[in-house]
Specification:
The structure holds 2 protein chains of 2 kinds.
Chain A (H helix, E strand, L loop, with lengths): L11 E13 L15 E13 L3 E5 L6 H9 L6 E6 L2 E2 L7 E4 L11 H12 L5 H14 L15 H14 L4 E5 L7 H18 L2 E5 L3 H7 L2 E5 L7 E6 L15 H24 L1
Helix pairs in contact in A: 2-3, 2-4, 3-4
Chain B lengths: L1 H29 L10 H13 L12 H32 L1 H14 L7 H9 L2 H26 L3 H9 L4 H12 L1 H23 L5 H11 L3 H28 L5
Helix pairs in contact in B: 2-11, 3-4, 3-6, 3-9, 3-10, 5-6, 6-9, 7-8, 9-10, 9-11, 10-11
Classes of the chains: A alpha/beta, B mainly alpha.
Bound molecules: adenosine-5'-triphosphate (ATP) and magnesium ion.
């Protein structure tokens, strides 16, 4: 699982250049006669961003500003209307197994067991591998998230936290260089969430991956990230600030709130979110 | 405990209502309250026992055991129905996935779906000049619509998360169809197949009255013999067979129920 560790630190992994996404409304027959000319929606605009290798980056912004859109663009699930996404120096054309995606609703296939869900990913990405190889690898990753005992259970038999762990195992099993997560812990209770946050951190340390995490939680962003990206409210949302979180690691959940540096960043984030959320309320 | 009692209770109630029905039927028939010579339940039950105790005899096409007739009908339904499903599922997937296929095929579907399948009988007879193939053809035309429409709807309303997972892994179109779309829409396909089977079984009886063998022709034949009790026997057997077929799909649907 270890990737070659002498890959240069501080080299750029992901670069976004003037990235923009406009959603065009499908023209229906009757629209030709309607007076409403509002046929498109500019979700994000002119996003410029550089993310270093093996860093942990969080994206925070008001609801509906375009965070998921941005993540989908990086994942290659949607294509941008303008700008470029550059990974390891190359402009991407679509999705690829160098990026593991973790979706908000776990997105496990309900007709497959836990292990089959992971095997599906492995079979798709490594079609040349033999069946026993795939199986062994799937079990290894289930073990990593502590779920080898649940390998033959179906998703509906798992709790939310367990499902999210399977989703994490599936995303990691294809050995990506980058992990893209869209509010992965949003639907979980506080205890499960903090447990999975720790697990994510230890996975991140061991596996040398670049993580891009979308979250609504300022505390989560502060606890996990090297850098926090603040997005402005949409439409035409863009990046309004980048904040480096230079707090020592490992960070202690209990005592971190006493750190004056922590409090300073937290205040700044809260202010920003309040301002941008108010902007949203005023528009609507 | 409660569950056991209520289960036993429903069983008793069912038997009781059946007994009451049989008795009332017998009284009405005996008193001639409906029409003269209307067969009573006793006579019908006797006929049922007679037909069921020796279902497989063959004294020519107009005197065939009820088991043979049932098998003939089932065979026609099964062939026509299987062909319909084989066409409906791929076509439905195509219609669900491609706007072009959807808009070019939908007019025909919407136009042909409400037409009674029996309208196809003369067409089939004219084209095939063979009652066996015509029967199968009519069942085919009957069975195709519910499965086709349900499949297309299933594909169109599939949870986009599954497709996103597949796409993010770089899965090919063929893998996505075989390993994601088809399993995901299994509940829709089975629901469609269940309705298709139901209508096919309804239609075969009517079609066979004009075709010359099968359980539908049996009814027609007994009508010519003016033997109403034998017609009741056929009705009971048709109903029972339809019920079994439907339950089969109920069982399959439970197996493919992904909901929590
Ligand atoms: N396929 C689409 N077609 C049209 N508009 C879209 C589409 N997808 C997203 N949008 C719009 O783009 C904007 C950004 O959506 P997005 O889902 O990226 O927001 P978000 O920041 O992830 O929100 P949340 O915090 O609620 O998850 C929203 O106003 C949304 O309505
Ligand atoms: Mg979102």
């Amino acid at each position: 699982m270890q990737k070659d560790s002498n890959s240069k630190k501080n080299s750029t992994h992901l670069e976004l250049v003037k990235l923009g996404k406009i959603f065009f409304k499908e023209k229906k027959f009757f629209d030709l006669y309607s007076k409403h000319k509002k046929s498109s929606f500019e979700a994000i605009k002119n996003i410029n961003l550089k993310i270093e290798k093996n860093t942990f980056v969080s994206i925070i912004g008001p609801s509906g500003c375009g965070k998921s859109t941005l993540l989908n663009l990086i994942a290659g699930l949607q294509s941008p209307t303008s700008g470029k996404i550059i990974i390891d120096g190359l402009s991407i054309k679509g999705p690829g197994p160098d990026r593991g995606v973790i979706f908000q609703n776990y997105a496990l296939m309900p007709w497959l067991t836990t292990i089959q869900n992971i095997e599906f990913a492995l079979n798709t990405v490594f079609p040349e591998k033999t069946k026993p190889d795939i199986k062994e690898r799937a079990i290894n990753y289930l073990r990593m998230v502590g779920l080898e005992k649940a390998s033959n259970k179906f998703p509906k038999e798992l709790s939310g936290g367990m499902k999210q762990r399977v989703a994490i195992a599936r995303a990691l099993s294809i050995n990506p260089n980058m992990l893209l997560m869209d509010e992965p812990f949003g639907a979980l209770d506080a205890l499960t969430r903090s447990y999975l946050q720790e697990e994510l951190l230890s996975i991140w340390r061991k596996n040398k991956v670049t993580v891009v995490l979308i979250t609504h939680s300022i505390e989560e962003a502060l606890l996990l990230s090297d850098k926090i990206i603040l997005m402005s409210s949409g439409p035409s949302a863009t990046i309004s600030e980048e904040i480096s979180v230079d707090l020592d690691r490992p960070r202690d959940r209990q005592n971190i709130e006493q750190d004056p540096k922590y409090l300073k960043i937290k205040m700044r984030l809260e202010k920003h979110l309040l301002r941008e959320t108010r902007a949203v309320e005023e528009v609507t | 405990m409660n569950k056991v009692i209520s289960k036993r209770l429903t069983f008793v109630v069912t038997i009781l209502s059946l007994l009451i029905f049989i008795i009332i039927w017998q009284i009405i028939a005996q008193q001639g309250l409906l029409v003269k010579n209307f067969p009573g339940s006793f006579k019908t039950i006797n006929a049922l026992i007679w037909w069921v105790s020796d279902p497989f005899f063959d004294n020519g096409p107009n005197d065939l055991g009820i088991g043979f007739n049932l098998l003939i009908s089932l065979r026609r339904v099964l062939i026509g129905y299987s062909l319909a499903v084989l066409v409906a599922i791929p076509l439905g997937v195509l219609m669900g996935m491609s706007k072009l296929a959807q808009s070019s095929l939908n007019p025909y579907v919407q136009l042909l779906k409400p037409v009674s399948p029996l309208a196809w009988l003369p067409v089939g007879l004219f084209v095939f000049r063979n009652s066996e193939i015509t029967g199968i053809f009519v069942i085919f035309i009957t069975s195709i619509w519910p499965t086709l429409i349900n499949t297309a709807f299933g594909v169109a309303s599939i949870n986009p998360d599954y497709l996103r997972v597949s796409k993010s892994l770089g899965a090919s179109k063929s893998i996505t169809i075989r390993r994601v779309i088809l399993p995901a829409i299994m509940p829709n396909i089975l629901a469609g197949m269940r309705i298709s089977m139901g209508t096919a079984w309804l239609v075969i009886v009517a079609a066979e009255m004009l075709l010359g063998t099968g359980i539908g022709y049996f009814i027609w034949n007994e009508w010519n013999n003016l033997s109403l009790e034998n017609i009741f026997v056929a009705i009971i057997i048709i109903g029972f067979t339809g019920f079994i077929l439907d339950q089969l799909f109920g069982f399959l649907q439970d197996k493919f129920d992904y909901s929590i």
